[in-house]
Amino acid sequence: NANVTCIYQQSDGVLWVGTSDGLSRFDPRANAWATFNTANSGLPGNYVYALLQAADGKIWVGMGGGLVRLDPVANSWTTFHTANSSLPDNRVYALLQAADGKIWVGTMSGLARFDPGANAWTIFKTADSGLPHNLVFSLLQATDGKIWVGTWGGGLARFDPGVNGWTTFKTADSGLPSDNVFALLQAADGKIWVGTGGGLVRFDPEVNAWTTFTTGNSGLPNNWVRALIQAADGKIWVGTNGGLVRITFQKISSSSGRLILVAGGGVQQSNPLRYTTQEIARNVYRNFISRDYKHT
Fold first, then answer.
1. Which of 8-12, 45-49, 87-91 is predicted least confidently?
2. What distances in angstroms separate CA 228 from CA 81, 100, 192, 287, 293, one per listed residue?
3. pLDDT tens digits, residue range 70-79?
4. pTM of the model as a whole
5. Which long-range contacts (CB under 8 A, 24 or more apart) does 115-119 make?
6. If we measure between CA atoms, which residue out of 50, 47, 84 comes closest to residue 65?
7. Number of neighbouring beta carbons within 10 Å of residue 266
8. What is the pLDDT of residue 22?
9. Which parts of the chain fold into alpha helices (H)?
């Protein structure tokens, strides 16, 4: 299917591609594709929103029909949904494995934390926690262990597991230009980058300083920022509704690396040194961008 929604690259180079019509796996060593959907696998639906490989090698899939755990070695599928677990909603938009091994799940109706070892769920909703909105679109664990949560309509939240405390950031009390948060990234220098519906934000937690980049004050082609990734060379790639942007902080030697990006027309692989921002992609949706890196 040409409507690619997310991409995840394993440390061994295998690519998992989520689409609106199922899940695909590409092995570059064998140049082979395998496709999974409701007809030939344990997937409860075909629309894939989020992908994650856990430390034990299992693949977690966020879908419109629940949360799926795939064991690629045993080819076994386990589905979690509202009827057989404490998952707050079957629409799963964001996934994260924290340093303690727990799986964080962002859904339409709240945030869930799942402990695979104990098979235990902890649910966070606006009614009983500091979560500012139940619709969770993005998740990030910073190097200090805190969990950052991007929501639709509620801005940004930071959860400290050590004290079970929440801090919220909204347009009314922070430098956020929009309360719709689609993407989160912690750069190598520790700063938090936030993709919103009103532009790109860089937050320095050490000094509590916000810097906003928009079409009006930077080279950002569109203020709806859907995807963020920092490449191995330090550059930050930004996917927007108007194209793809590469942010360069200092002059470094070029490489022959390939850029894998996702757009409305499918997966495109290109040399980032050959094309302009506009030529690379015209419409990058909420998805994942990867450039020769390993997930940690």
1. 8-12
2. 29, 24, 11, 9, 13
3. 999 999 999 9
4. 0.83
5. 116/54
6. 47
7. 12
8. 94
9. 277-280
